[in-house]
């Protein structure tokens, strides 16, 4: 059911510094920063030949990334995003298998404007998974 690895997301305390590190030290191509108030994040995408890295900085006091950074002050891997062809079919299949969908279970527009859902990390080896309809 899952397809390509769309991106690996890394939570960072300072987005400008992290973007500069990827651009100048690692020599990667970086997108312009974008704000996603609905998800409480400001993001920059690092474009790699085979996938992307999503650098996430908290946006707003209620950001889930702020909580994550409190537990991981140096930043760290926050989630993996897998592509699916049909997000509602994927959700229904996962729910039927006993996996828990975060939030109200309704897909929301993600960083690429396509619908996304997040799965409870307790059901997936401690990894927060984002599904994005490709
Ligand atoms: Co993501």
Bound heterogens, unique: cobalt (II) ion
H-E order: EHEEEEHEHEEE
CATH topology category name: 2,3-Dihydroxybiphenyl 1,2-Dioxygenase, domain 1
Name the shape in a single word: globular
Number of helices: 3
Mean of residue pLDDT values: 96
Q: Specify the biggest β-sheet.
A: 9 strands, mixed
Residue fraction in strands: 35-45%
Identify the CATH class.
Answer: Alpha Beta
Q: What would your notes on this structure say?
A:
It is a single chain. By secondary structure, this protein is an alpha+beta fold. The protein has a single domain, classed as 2,3-Dihydroxybiphenyl 1,2-Dioxygenase, domain 1. The protein is built from 3 helices and 9 strands, in the order βαββββαβαβββ. It has helices at residues 15-25, 64-71, 87-96; strands spanning 5-11, 29-30, 34-36, 41-47, 52-58, 76-84, 108-109, 115-119, 129-133. Strands 1, 2, 3, 4, 5, 6, 7, 8 and 9 form a 9-stranded mixed sheet that branches. The chain binds cobalt (II) ion (CO). The site of cobalt (II) ion (CO) has 7 residues, from strand 1 and strand 6.
